[in-house]
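WARN retry 2 of 3 for item q-0093 after timeout on previous attempt; input resubmitted unchanged.
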Amino acid sequence: MMTDSRQRKRLPIYLVLTLSLLALACRIVIPGSFGDVPAEVPRSPVAATEEAASTLESHIAQPITPLLTSNEEQVLVDLYARVNSSVVNITVFNELNNLLEAASQGSGFVYDSQGHIVTNAHVVHGGSQVEVRFADGTGRLAEVIGEDLNSDLAVVRVDSMPEGVAPLKLGDMDSLQVGQSVIAIGNPFGLEGTLTRGVISALGRTIPALTPFSIPQSIQTDAAINPGNSGGPLLNLNGEVIGVNAQIETDGQSATNLGVGFAIPVSIIKLIIPDLIQSGAHQWAWLGVSGGDLTPILVEAMELPVEKGAYIFNVATDGPSEQAGVRGASDTRTVRGRQVDVGGDIITAINDQPVNSFDDLLVYVALKTAPGDEVTLKIFRDGEFVDLKVKLELRPSS
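OK item q-0093 returned
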């Protein structure tokens, strides 16, 4: 009886608490304008329940939106399925103790239906034997039929290719833009068939060749390329080759990618590869000068009325430019605390094509001339413009 009496006395308290909680659940806060006191509006128990459920749902973690839309992802998936069979893994063997052992590894891509495969010269140069492995696992011994150290390009050939392997199409240099999406396919660290994605970070870079000369018009990309990617294709989203992955910029302590990679441009591929297939070599025209761009300090030091052009520092002894009378720097001058070489010619045009930088001069000679051609240089010298005719020669090996 004592227990029942206590329970009956507690019932009104439980009832009051329940009604109070229900009353609170039936009220919702509606925010007013900034600085206003929120107004409270009564709600029915059903509405309050729905509102509570909605509030709970809003706190549940929502899925993260993918970086790529489904359409963009499908483009990459389809592209990889279409072109990966044309990208190969290349292993080079060298002789050691009268036996051949794997010495280096790189990538390449099928250039034509005759079994020609494009790669980097530095991948195969000096090798005793080359082995090509296709995406389906088929292996073939390959013959190096041509290499060009000035462009770091080479061609190897296999006698036959697996069924269904097709050549990759070359893209158009003039259509490339900074910011354009690109992909690289290759075999970094021997991991065959690896795809990485990035953008064209810059165009018109000049990178070192395997000779004292440079490779102009190169493509800078942040698509991850690492050792083993060398010789593989850089492609646009149409699956067209726009470059051959060749170099990475490092911090001097690591050989891995830091987001700055370089590809030999398709313009150089189109120039060099047909010659390597036909004759095993390419003949580069040689102007016989070295130099750089005009700088504000040079303009001030030489009191120049021009601000753009290729400034000539050195002229090769007995080279074509020296024979034509082109002059290099002949003196030094200190301007604003900086010592500069002065007295060199400024080339502002070649064959009536404007030259705004030294790279412009390099690109014109590399892509639009051949040994034996005569070009006309417009030069600013001693306060006036003069025209000099130069007969180009074959580029020396060193």
